[in-house]
Amino acid sequence: MSKIGKLPIILGSGVSATVQGSQVNVTGPKGNVNYTFPQGIEVSVTEGKVTVQAKDLSDRKVRALYGLTRANLNNAIKGIDTGFEKRLELVGVGYRAQMQGADLVLSLGFSHPVKFQPKAGITIDVKDNGIIITGTDKMLVGETAANIRAIRPPEPYKGKGIKYKGERIRRKAGKAAKAAGAK
Q1: Of all residues in the chain, what percent carry a pLDDT higher than 90?
Q2: Contacts 24+ apart (CB under 8 A), 106-114
Q3: Does residue 179 have a pLDDT over 90?
Q4: Quick one: DSSP state of residue 111?
Q5: Is the domain of 30 the same as that of 101?
């Protein structure tokens, strides 16, 4: 039995969930989400708690989807209640980010500025040489942050590029350090 799957999900204040067939409708302060759960899984809402149960634990496919369904449903409820956020930092001389309407414009040492258009449901904010990505969908926030980071990932010699806040870059010794060590 899944350790994660059997944990109940507690609904926050202002968040409500209803089950209709194989769909869970979650409404809260940041909007609403419809989550369709797979066959073999039962979802019930009682007294401010959402519980997920597997119909047949002997079926390998149902066991695999049991904890996944609970985790995805928990992320949907948390996203509607508080939302998700990823922070990126720009490291490098002349590396800048600015907003032009809804688009993010990055100056990263290329011969041209790079424009990034976020998907619907994602908001991007630029503060103090950093980028803040917020939204209600955890996967979409993470994917957007990864796509922005992929434009100029941090390089290992000087650490220049776009990195996650708090990320440690493994640094390499340059040519001068290697040449000095060879003598």
Answers
A1: 69
A2: 106/148, 106/151, 106/152, 106/162, 108/151, 108/152, 108/161, 108/162, 109/152, 109/160, 114/151
A3: no
A4: S
A5: no
Count of domains forming the chain: 2
- Residue located via tokens 């990932």: 153
- How far, in Å, CA of 15 to CA of 180, rounded? 63
Question: Domain holding 142: CATH number?
Answer: 3.90.930.12
Has residue 101 been placed in a domain?
A: yes
CA distance 102 to 151: 18
Residue-wise pLDDT tens digits, 57-110? 888 899 889 989 999 999 999 999 999 999 999 999 999 999 999 999 999 999
Sign of the torsion angle spanned by Cα atoms 160, 163, 169, 172:
negative
